[in-house]
Description:
This protein is an alpha/beta fold. The chain has one domain (about 5-185): 3-Layer(aba) Sandwich (Leucine Aminopeptidase, subunit E, domain 1). Helices cover about 40% and strands about 20% of the residues. It has five helices and seven strands; from the N terminus they run βββααββαβαβα. The protein has helices at about 40-50, 55-65, 100-120, 140-155, 170-180, and strands spanning about 5-10, 10-20, 30, 75-80, 85-90, 125, 165-170. The protein has a seven-stranded mixed beta sheet, sandwiched between helices. β6, α4 and β7 (about 165-170) form a beta-alpha-beta unit. It starts with a strand and ends in a 10-residue tail after the last helix. The protein binds ligand AR6. Ligand AR6 binds near residues 32, 134 and 173.
Amino acid sequence: MSERFETEVAGTRLVLVRGDITTQDVDAVVNAANPQLTPGGGVSGAIHRAGGPELTRAAAAVRRERGPLSPGEAVITPAGNLRARRVVHTVGPIWRGGRHGEAELLARAYRSCLALAVEHGLRSIAFPSISTGVYGYPVEEAAPVALGAVRWFLREHPGALDEVRFVLFSDGDLATYRRAWEGLPEPAVPER
Ligand code: AR6
C-alpha cells in the first residue's frame, strides 16, 4: 500500500497520508482535544509539546473565556512553534457502542473544523483520525464518517479550500481510510 493517496473533491485536493500531524506544513492542523483543552495524551499531547507554552496558554485562555467544549464543537488558536499557522481544536465523541449519536457528533466535529478554517480564510487543513485513539471509536467505523463529512462539506463549499489532508499514524489506519474512501456510498439524501 502506498503511503499517500490523492484525489479531488469539487476543486479541493483530498489527501490521505501516513505521518505525524505535528509536522504538517498546512495553514491549520486539527487537534483531537479534550473538552478542557489541556494537553492530555495522543495527538493533543504531541501538538502541545511541539507547539510549546504559547499554544498551551492560548488554549487555556480560550477555555477560560468560553468554558469546556462539547463533542462536535471546535475553536481556533495560534499554533506556537508548529509549522502550521493555526490549531483548530475539536472534541470528538467517546465511543459508547455506536448507538449514542457518535457518528453524528464525529461528523459534526469535522464540519466544525472546516467551517472555522474557511471563516478564518485558511486554505489548507490537516486532520488526525479524531476519536479513534483514547476515545475508542473503531477506525473502520470512523473512517467513512470522517470522509463522508469532509466530502459533503467540500461539495457544499466548492473551491473554499485548496487541500484537506488526513494524516494517519499507521499503515493500517491509512489502508482503512483508503478502503473507506473507495467504498464511500453516494448519499441518497444530503449528508448532514
Ligand atoms: N500524528 C497523527 N496521528 C496521531 C499522532 C500524531 N502525532 N499521535 C496519535 N495519533 P487520540 P482521541 C493517532 O487518542 O481518540 C487525548 O488525551 C492515534 O493513533 O489522540 O480523539 C485528549 O486530551 C489515533 O489513531 O485522540 C483527549 O482526552 C488518533 O491519532 C483524548 O486523547 C486519535 O487518537 C482524545 O482522544
